[in-house]
Amino acid sequence: MRVHVISDVHGRADALARAGDDADALVCLGDLILFVDYDDHAKGIFADLFGAANAAEFIGLRTAGRFDEARAMSARLWATLDGDPREHIERNVHAQYEALFAAMPVPAYLTYGNVDLPRLWTDHVRPGQRVLDGEVAEIGGLRFGFVGGGLKTPYRTPHEISDEEYAAKVEAVGAVDVLCCHIPPAVPELLYDVVARRFERGSEATLEAIRRTQPRYALFGHVHNPLRARTRIGRTECVNVGHFRAKGVPYVLEW
User: Fold this and answer.
1) Core-most of 108, 182, 186, 234, by most CB within 10 Å?
2) Which residue range or ranges hold the Calcineurin-like phosphoesterase domain (predicted)?
3) What share of the chain is helix, strand, coil (3-state, %, to 5)?
4) pLDDT tens for residues 142-165?
5) Could you give the CA distance from residue 132 to residue 53 in angstroms, rounded to a whole number?
6) Global confidence as pTM
């Protein structure tokens, strides 16, 4: 059995169309849309609406941890548009989702990332694309558990949830062979991004579940440039499957 696993697609419909080549199934760990691009400031919804220069300034403020200033700047820009800002965001998100779900090969098993808008997925998911969150699917005789979303941060990305809600989903999944999450377990070397020079948030609940149930694999993304891409916790191989937008190639899981 050969399964390809991806995360942090962020708009790469071209590479997504090839992500399932020679695989029995595709697993996607979320973050499909591209709101801002930290590498190319001219890309993403924010730049499409307000230009690359404004996107660069916005990214600079967030990178420096000046979140209040970034939110104030964003609010000023949104106020220049006609109508409700949410309508502009959702129109652009719908356009990205339409292209991404159309490109995504099947069968595919998906969960949400922290920048996704789950309520919009139902308009675009196609037959053969199964969305799971706090749920388990059997793939090739192994039990795959899925936990989507991220935990609350100063970035206030769209799909951040409370620690309690996240822990409840981890508990609902229970003991599995492969634990699939968008964010890593709370292991410092898995959480530090060497380019952004900051720690992302990881899940204590996921870490505790890994220690208790010892799945074969714990797979995740979220941290685009991790200090360490993999580590072992007991018998569990913990793997960051890679920043798909940048690399365009999946992580391969075979058994």
Assistant:
1) 182
2) 1-226
3) 35, 25, 45
4) 999 999 999 999 999 999 999 999
5) 38
6) 0.94
